[in-house]
């Protein structure tokens, strides 16, 4: 595609950012849709986020993604926030509106729920266990509650961290936390319909790692969902699959959250199958 003076610009901000898959996925989708726009990865120095954000806005950028370590810090620079961004307390997508106002969104919930939809899993009325209490767990917890989940137990190593996370969502549903070796956690995982793994444990290159959970203790009919997509099957998913569980990895979540951002910027629904194919090919290429 020829870049001209009319070509619009999208970006992802982070530090570090060279490893990001977003430029490969988004540029493929933009080209397929025939949209005169390019998407670039921009490394932003710590302490320079506000000047970078306002500079991009003033230079006419259409919008941008935000990743580690800026997803929470950027919130105070926004003129408005979507409900998902408010509840998760993180922004991963910014739309620069025609009047220059900055609208902060979080597309992780849409992405997360797309993983269930692809497999025909309906969270409403089900019992869920979430492993971990970090930033990803916050998006997962809100997504489950928004979907009408019956109850959520958050499994953690740090009891205080788990309790603090659950307290934030206590008004939204039946949410509690328990440390991994607590009998209450073992009871929860033994009756769960859905288990969601939100920690980095098992991600490449540490593919033999997994949260301290005995897969044999998981309810035999539970769906096991790991947000990691490199490798495509973590040790947790391999062990769960061997015991007959339906499993979901994080590939659809990554593609669908990117597709939702694409739609927010362009008002066009991208070719999701293309985005997933490009993602998978690039992950395989990187090994």
Task: List its salient traits.
19% strand, six-stranded parallel β-sheet, globular, six-stranded mixed β-sheet, 287 residues, single chain, alpha/beta, 10 helices, 38% helix
Task: Describe the 3D structure.
- By secondary structure, the protein is an alpha/beta fold.
- The protein is 38% helix and 19% strand.
- It has ten helices and twelve strands.
- It has a six-stranded mixed sheet.
- It is globular.
Give a brief outline of the structure.
This protein is an alpha/beta fold and 287 residues long. The protein contains 10 helices and 12 strands.
Beta-strand percent range: 15-25%
The percent range for helix content is: 25-40%
C-alpha Rg (nearest Å) = 19 Å
Q: Write out the strand line-up for the largest beta sheet, numbering strands in chain order.
A: 2-1-3-5-6-4
Unreliable residue stretches: none
Largest sheet, strands/sense/barrel? 6 strands, mixed
Order of helices and strands: EHEHEEHEEHEHEHEHEEHEHH
- Gross morphology is globular
Distance between the termini: 28 Å
Tell me the total number of β-strands.
12
Mean pLDDT: 96
Structural class from helices and strands?
A: alpha/beta
Number of helices: 10
Please specify the SSE layout and strand pairing.
Elements: E1 8-14, H1 22-33, E2 37-43, H2 49-58, E3 63-66, E4 80-81, H3 83-88, E5 93-96, E6 102-105, H4 108-118, E7 127-131, H5 135-146, E8 151-156, H6 159-168, E9 174-179, H7 183-191, E10 194-197, E11 223-226, H8 235-242, E12 247-248, H9 251-266, H10 272-286
Parallel strand pairs: 1-2, 1-3, 4-6, 7-8, 7-10, 8-9, 10-11, 11-12
Antiparallel strand pairs: 3-5, 5-6
Helix pairs in contact: 1-9, 1-10, 4-5, 4-9, 9-10
